[in-house]
Every structure is written in C-alpha cells, then in structure tokens.
UniProtKB/TrEMBL annotation:
InterPro entries according to UniProt: Thioredoxin-like_sf, UAS, UBA-like_sf, Ubiquitin-like_domsf, UBX_dom, UBX_domain-protein
Domain UBX per the UniProt entry, residue ranges: 407-502
GO function terms (MF aspect): ubiquitin binding
Protein name in UniProt: BA75_01461T0
Keyword Transmembrane helix attached: yes
Cellular component terms per the entry's GO annotation: endoplasmic reticulum
UniProt GO BP: ERAD pathway
Keyword field: Coiled coil, Membrane, Transmembrane, Transmembrane helix
Length: 529
C-alpha cells in the first residue's frame, strides 16, 4: 500500500515516462529500489533498467523462541541485489579540475595521501604501553636534535610510483589566432598534456594503439551508451616504471591487437595533470601504472547492470607481467562478462528497432494527416473560388445590362467577333480598363451559355441572378483573380490585349476612339502569336 506522497511521486513518474499500466508493479519496485529518487528512477527507466528482482523473504529459523524479536529484522523488503556482492561503480569524475587549471585543493582524501614511514612507526608505538610511546618519541626528538632535519628527511621518503598529493603541471591554453603552434608548457621538462604526444615522445615513433582522444567522462559515457568495454590506464610521467610500461606493454603488438580485437574504449591519463589525477583520486588509485577494466555489467547476471569496475590489475602484476599475461588476464574477465553486454546490445537493438518503427509509423501518420489537411484546404479553396467566380460573373452580368448612357467623345465603340461569326458592338467609357473589356466578353458568353442550358431568356436569367446574389455568402472580390478562357486580339495590326486593370482604353490606340476585336478561345488551334 503506497502512501499519498509515494502515489504522487508515482504519478509524476508516469507523467514523465508514460509507462504502460501493466508495468506499474515493476515501476513501484524500481522506485522502492531507488528509495523513491525520481531522477535516478527515470534515468534507469530510459536506460531500459526497470527489471528489479522481487523481494525474497527469508524465513525465520525453526529453533527455540529467541531472546529478541526476529520480526524486527524481517527481510521482506530486502532485495537480492542488496545482499549479493557488487562491483565498485564506475562513476564520472568531478569537473572541478577544469576550473583549477591543474591545481587541486590541498585537502586530499586519505586514499590518495602519501604514506610516510614515520607515521607508520608512530602507529606501531601506539600499540605498546604509553611509557614506551613516550620513550620512543623522546628518542626520535633526541635524534632530531643531534641530527637536524632527521624527522623531516624520514617523513619525506616516498615511493616514486605512488600517486602525487596534487597535480604537478597545469594546462596552458593556446593563444587565439596562433593555431599553428603547439601549447606551451610551464617548464622545458614538462611532458605534453596530450597523452598521445607524450607516448610518442617516449617510444620515439607513432603508435598504432587506438586511444580515446576525449575527456574521461566522455569515454565513460561512450562506453556506457554503446555497451563497450572501457580500459582505464593511469601513468605517472617521469618515472622509470611508467617509461618501461609504455615501451614494454602499451607499445607491444599484442596489446594493440588486444584493444582492436575486443573493440575496447581505451582512455589513458597522466596523473601529473589534473584530469587523470582526479580520476585517480575518485577511484582510489595508490600506485602507478594502474589498469582498471569497466563495463555496464553486474556481478550476477540476474541483477541490474550498472557501469562498474570489473577488474583492477595489481601494481606488481603490471610491473612483472608480460604483455601477453596482462592481456590474457583482462581477456578472462571480458570473456566471462561479455555475454551480459551481448544480451544488452541485443535488447538495445530491439529497442532501437522498435523505436525506429514507431518513429516511421508516426512520421507516416503525420504525413497522412498533412496530406488530408492539404486536400481539405485545396477543396475548401476550390469551393471558395467557385463561389467567387459565380459572384463575379453574376454581378458583372447585372452591371453590363444596367449600362448608363455615355457622353460623346468620352467613349469608344468596340466591335467583337468570334470564330462562329457572331458579332457584338459595345460602347465603353474612356476610363474603362482592358480588364473591363475582358469581363464584358466573359459575361456575354456566360449569359448565352446559361440561357441555352436552362432554356430561358437572358432577361429571365438576369432575374434569377439578382435572387442568387442575395443568397451567396459575402466574398471579398478584391482578392479574387479571375481566369479568362479566351484572348482578345486586335487584328490589324495583330495585337494581343492583356486583361490589365491598370491600362485605360483611351491609352490603347488600337481601341480608341474605336476598334475591332477578335475573340479567340484558348482551346483553339488558331495562331495566337
């Protein structure tokens, strides 16, 4: 039974992820497994990690009544994944190293502090009676008085292969506009910040080793997203062990072939620089060179896979091992846990394929909707055009029949003839345009065709037009472009008139003060040049 607060979080989860109702039980177990952390649960949902094993109850022992209540230790809510061994998580490093320019805070975690012999001696003395401790401290102080700097020298002894207390070098940004130069360094002896350049300077040639060129967090995310193995190698420039490791192992054909054959994401960093130092601090590295193998797997195949450290190679194994032995040891872990990655890749391919199918279906559906909308729009447009054409013709037919008288010398007389020999003479005022002439001819043709079609006179047809106009919807004819299915030609010399609303008849010499026009249908085969 969920509390109101849990019900609210479940509703928020459903609003973000839109999970199916049949997945509700799985989602509730996922939220319980993540302590109702919505961000973590949502992230695992979209990663496809929603399968959480159901709680396995542990029956109380069938023994004599205990002195305490075992019910207080009920494991009904204990998950199998909580009691089984787990790999250390492979987590992203903090981005603070970028802002410090290679200088990290003096507060170094205990796991990365340098272990000094003198502190070990003091710890041993603490195990014996206080008197001996005071005696030992007194002897140490006496030696320090006789030999000044004795304690300081004793404390300063450290292993050159241990991780430093802080990065030794800073990144120096290249000045803008100077792309032809490499980045400068603080000292002449400072190794290149880019590991590939440092590697090449050590081995004296270009290596075939495939090294990830981005930041550590990018390599981690890439391996997690593409379900690849991530090999993390940390070295310390300037030490004998690192130089031998680079020449003996990393530059060996066996190691290069091992990386390529297993499609491994290889990230290598120098702890003398801030980013690799941050990696070492985050993952508790003590001695160098260091090798860690990571992947999105789990210690048990039936638990939720997370990006985890599967194996850490011991310093002594790296120092004494041959390239073949190092690769074989890593290959053992890869072969053991590779089936988990293969299964995840298969699931991911299915999810991607299903997502692609849904995307294609959605795109096809949206395209169909767009076509339907466009079809409806065109249909509506045609209806509006037909209504506008009807209104245009009927209103103009009524206007030409109510033609007012014209004053002498203020009009032109035009004779119209068609290919059937029919002739019409009409007077137009000097302010009439060529469009008005076209509209007159179109209306005459429309009147004749409609009267013949209905078997009524043109006067009866005009009476119907008056009634029809009152029933037509209001349409703005100023935005209507009428199409004329004929051309008007002045025969001598042959001149085609255009239906322009800007050209007045008094400005057309072929029609002023009188003219003759031929009506040629656009469907005719006659010459219209």
């Amino acid at each position: 039974m969920l509390t109101p607060e849990q019900e609210e979080k479940l509703a928020q989860f459903k609003e973000v992820t839109s999970f199916e109702d049949e997945q509700r039980d799985k989602i509730v177990r996922l939220l319980e497994h993540t302590s109702w952390n919505l961000d973590l649960a949502i992230s695992r949902f979209f990663d496809g990690n929603i399968n959480v094993p159901e709680p396995i109850p542990i029956e109380p022992p069938h023994t004599v009544e205990p002195d305490f209540d075992y019910t207080s230790f009920s494991s009904e809510n204990v998950l199998l994944s909580d009691i089984m061994p787990k790999f250390p998580k492979a987590v992203p490093i903090s981005d603070t190293w970028k802002f410090h320019g290679g200088l990290i805070s003096d507060q170094i975690p205990h796991s990365t502090q340098v272990r000094r012999p003198f502190k070990t001696v003091i710890f041993v003395f603490m195990l014996i009676p206080r008197a001996f401790l005071l005696l030992g401290t007194g002897i140490a102080n006496l030696l320090n008085w006789i030999f000044p700097g004795f304690l300081k020298a004793l404390e300063g002894i450290k292993n050159p292969d241990e991780i430093p207390s802080e990065p030794k070098y800073q990144y120096i940004k290249q000045e803008e506009g100077d792309a032809s130069k490499e980045a400068s360094y603080l000292e002449d002896t400072q190794p290149p910040a880019k590991f590939e350049d440092y590697f090449r300077s050590v081995i004296g040639e270009t290596s075939d080793l495939s090294i990830f060129s981005g930041e550590f967090n990018q390599a981690l995310e890439y391996a997690k997203t593409d379900l690849k193995w991530l090999l993390i190698i940390l070295v310390k420039s300037g030490t004998v062990s690192t130089t031998k490791f680079l020449k003996r192992v990393l530059n060996s054909p066996e190691f290069c072939r091992f990386i390529d054959d297993n499609d491994i994401v290889l990230w290598i960093g120098d702890v003398n620089y801030a980013e690799a130092f941050e990696v070492g601090k985050t993952y508790g590295v003590h001695t160098l060179p260091h090798i860690s193998l990571a992947a999105k797997v789990s210690a048990l195949s039936n638990t939720m896979p997370l990006m985890s450290i599967v194996h850490k190679s011991h310093h002594s194994h790296i120092q004494s091992g041959t390239p073949e032995r190092i690769c074989n040891r890593l290959k053992t872990f890869i072969d053991h846990y590779e089936p988990q990655l293969i299964s995840q890749r298969y699931d991911k391919q299915e999810q991607d394929f299903a997502r692609l199918i849904r995307q294609q279906q959605d795109e096809a559906y949206e395209a169909s909707l767009r076509k339907d909308k466009e079809r409806e729009r065109m249909k509506e447009k045609l209806v509006q055009q037909e209504l506008a054409k009807e209104l245009f013709l009927k209103s103009n037919c009524l206007e030409i029949e109510d033609d007012p008288p014209l004053l002498k010398d203020n009009y032109t007389t035009i004779q119209f003839r068609n290919h059937q020999g029919l002739r019409v003479i009409q007077k137009f005022s000097q302010s009439s345009t060529l469009f008005d002439v076209y509209a007159f001819v179109d209306c005459k043709i429309h009147l004749r065709e409609e009267s013949e079609k209905k078997g009524i006179t043109q006067e009866e047809l005009l009476a119907e037009f008056k009634k029809d106009i009152l029933q037509l919807p209001e349409i703005d004819l100023s935005k209507y472009d009428h199409y004329f299915e004929f051309e008007l030609i002045s025969p001598l010399p042959r001149y085609k008139l255009t239906p322009s609303k800007d050209i007045c008849l008094k400005d057309v010499k072929e029609l002023w003060p009188n003219g003759s026009v031929l009506i040629e249908s656009l469907g005719d085969n006659s010459d219209s040049d």
